[in-house]
Design brief:
mainly alpha, Trp Operon Repressor, Chain A, globular, YecD_YerC, sequence-specific DNA binding, DNA-binding transcription factor activity, Trp_repressor/repl_initiator, TrpR-like_sf
Length: 98
């Protein structure tokens, strides 16, 4: 993890997120701390990552999500060279669905 990211403030934010009990609480909290555009951008990146893991093309992803090729490329770089956060979440979602 990026050491610049490990600040007391970020840890406090993550503690707050981990305290949320269900999706309704997530909606309430994230609507308060994010703008609509920030939240939509985060969800767009998640969808892009999901589609990249499904081996969709940049063109397909851009058409479905409206993401720019720059955004798709950044997400792809995170998937390939990041901290495996997306894959960890994808695995947990799949296990939960089974």
């Amino acid at each position: 993890m990026n050491k610049k990211l490990r600040t007391p403030e970020v840890e406090q934010l993550f503690d707050a997120i981990l305290s949320l009990k269900d999706k309704e609480e997530c909606f309430a909290y994230f609507e308060d701390i994010c703008t609509i555009n920030e939240l939509l951008s985060l969800s767009q990146r998640f969808e892009v990552a999901k589609m990249l893991r499904e081996h969709k093309t940049y063109i397909d992803i851009a058409q479905k999500t409206g993401a720019s090729t720059a955004t798709i490329s950044r997400v792809n770089r995170s998937l390939n060279y990041g901290n495996d956060g997306y894959d960890m979440v994808f695995e947990r979602i799949i296990k939960k669905e089974l």
